[in-house]
């Protein structure tokens, strides 16, 4: 891994970069080298999620009509408190799909996903993987912000999940990276703790799309020590597609 490649990884992990002094150079941060080079222990597969069947009318929508349906959605009370819906952002044929749980206050104002502090950290995560944010698609399970940034309610997830499932069907990503417990449990239709969902390659839908679970960026902001674990998850996602960093 070159200096240029390793820089974004160190930035995400919050590790101070050492500057070389003269030709002999200074000492390298051995702990950071170890963290970067650590590969996933295994690419274990677990039974795939079948994915819940999207609402019949939603399952037939093309991209433009799906966007319109989300913008005018009134299927749950969140429509009364939102400023804007947050459909998602990125290319329609992205190989990578990142999924969070719900928009926050910044996203509600701008109509775009992950634009606050958690979004800045997500960008760092994506760049640490050697990707560009503009090259991936980013979405949430919920398209409207829950008041007070509370956790999404089960009925809200049930109302909104068909939109995300249709997005996945249209996008046909090569891999899905799920950010946080709520998004993971919603997509995989499980109550399994995130600690048991991480570190494995899950499978989503009838096509068995690889799905890797990691921590939500907001959690990592509160618990930066978990960034190393999250980096292992991201390495697992890269290895699943045959990439190496």
Describe the structure.
With 245 residues, the protein is α/β, with parallel strands linked by helices. It has one domain (3-12, 42-240): 3-Layer(aba) Sandwich (Uracil-DNA Glycosylase, subunit E). Helices cover 41% and strands 9% of the residues. A five-stranded mixed beta sheet has the order 2-1-3-5-4, with helices on both faces. The longest helix has 18 residues, at 154-171. The relative contact order is 0.18. The model is unreliable at 16-53 (pLDDT under 50).
Write the layout of secondary structure elements.
Layout lengths: L2 H11 L16 H8 L18 H4 L3 H9 L24 E5 L4 H6 L6 H12 L8 E4 L13 H18 L3 E5 L1 H8 L5 H4 L4 E3 L4 E6 L2 H6 L4 H14 L5
Parallel strand pairs: 1-2, 1-3, 3-5
Antiparallel strand pairs: 4-5
Overall form? globular
Distance between the termini: 6 Å
Query: What's the number of structural domains?
Result: 1
In CATH, the topology is named Uracil-DNA Glycosylase, subunit E
Percent of sequence in beta strands: 5-15%
Number of contiguous helices = 11
Which architecture per CATH?
3-Layer(aba) Sandwich
Please, what is the average pLDDT?
Answer: 84
- Characterize the main sheet: 5 strands, mixed
Strand order of the largest sheet: 2-1-3-5-4
CATH class: Alpha Beta
